[in-house]
Amino acid sequence: MNTSEIIKTIFLPVSAKVAWGYLTKADKLAKWFHAPKQDLEDGQDYELFGTESGDKLCWGKVLNMVPYTSLAYSFAVKPFPDMQTEVHWKLDEIEGGTRITMRHAGLDSAGAESFGLSMALDKGWDGHFAKLREV
Predict the structure, then answer these.
(1) Domains of the chain: which residue ranges?
(2) Which CATH architecture has domain 3-134?
(3) Strands 45-49 and 35-36
(4) What is this structure's pTM?
(5) Closest CA to 74 of 49, 100, 40, 98
(6) CA–CA separation, 19 vs 14, rounded Å?
(7) Residue scoring higher pLDDT (101 or 3)
């Protein structure tokens, strides 16, 4: 299978510790992404729900957590429940704030349907990153 990935970077005027909370804490994730029922924990399964609909939208397992530095989890999304991908976050404290790089890997790149999903996820991440900037 041919795979591709989406890579996004955002700069936030906060410490890596503060940014980490927005990637791992249930109440903060719900402000910009989707709402988990509990904080993300290393090695644990998670589910993310629509903040308005309450529908389960995404789920997976936290694969690795290094506080304030990196986070990785498997990721499945409602329209394609059998397609497992991975999302990797890297936090770098820089002068004035934190640079966060997200890499969504393992996307199938074969065929028009796969390309459409990649486009939808790319657009979705843009929207979520815009919300993250606001909060």
Answers:
(1) 3-134
(2) 2-Layer Sandwich (3.30)
(3) antiparallel
(4) 0.93
(5) 40
(6) 6
(7) 101
CA 41-44-46 angle, to 5 degrees, is 90
Tokens of 34: 């989707």
* Edge-to-edge strand ranges of the sheet holding 97-108: 3-12, 97-108, 80-94, 70-77, 56-66, 45-49, 35-36
pLDDT per residue as tens digits for the range 14-34: 999 999 999 999 999 999 999
Q: With beta carbons less than 8 A apart as the criterion, state whether 61 and 75 touch.
A: no
Q: Give yes or no for a contact between 65 and 40, defined as CB atoms under 8 angstroms apart.
A: yes
Residue type, 86: E
**DSSP-derived secondary structure for 79-120:** TEEEEEEEEEEEEEEETTEEEEEEEEEEEE-SSHHHHHHHHH
One-letter amino acid for residue 124 of the chain: G
- Cα distances from 83 to residues 43, 86, 100, 114, in angstroms, run 20, 10, 25, 10
